[in-house]
Design goal:
CATH architecture of the largest domain: 2-Layer Sandwich
Number of strands: 9
Strand content: 15-25%
Structural class: alpha+beta
CATH topology of the largest domain: D-amino Acid Aminotransferase, Chain A, domain 1
Amino acid sequence: MEMFNDFKDICVIIVLALDRKLLYKLQYFHHRGRFPDLKNPKDISERIISTMLEPSFAAEYADYADKVKVRQYVKDKGLEEILIKHYGVWDNANKIDFDKLPDKFVMKTNNGSGKHVFCRDKSTLDIKKSIQHLNKTLNLPYFFNKEPHYKSINPLIFCEELIDTGQDDLPTDYKFTCVNGRPIDITVCTERSKKAKYCSFDMDWNVTDNILRKHNPDKLPEKPKNLKKMIEISKILSAGFTFVRVDLYNIGNRIWFGELTFTPEGGIMKAYTDIGIKMMGSFFED
């Protein structure tokens, strides 16, 4: 089958089907060289994995991870102005009337990561290919997803405004790691239309070299003008959650909401150093 790209995919699916906890342990070991302590979790990865294994996890977090339903949560928090404009929601790409859409837009699934359709000029869009791609993404079987709360999300396609960066690139993504309603790290993703590059900052926009395994932008991004407001938004949206990552965009004077992420990199957080996950884990005890 086309969906099985390599032997590694097959092994992951087999282990996932047999024992999800074992899969997390093996993945953690693969990236850390040791097994996680899930009985007495300390670092942030161990804590996220432990939470993912709780029976109530899926039901508790699914609506917040749903990129369509979470919009109501943002509105309820009094932050409707940071929501990106939506043009429609569908359960099948064949139902989309492309004639009613603007010349520029983005198509995404509410439970996916990547595999989006970016349209910068509708006159050049291959609509048939886009429909096929969206339906294939929409119908990816659950066993490919190791994060249980996504199973509880009813798969949908939605269309939203394409944020204009003034360049042929996607907007810089500011990922605020929050523990108990407190932002503790900002991981910044740039050059997203090419090969994404990452760097990490504290709340005062000081580079934190020991958090990520690799800092690789050619030039560090400038401190956003709205940093203080973005931090406040992260506090508002993360309040009440033991852990969540709040993803925001900022172009000029505008801030946009991206998503809430409860299990970054499947909870393994392989892009982060041992020092980084231990440091972030220490905030759970404050």
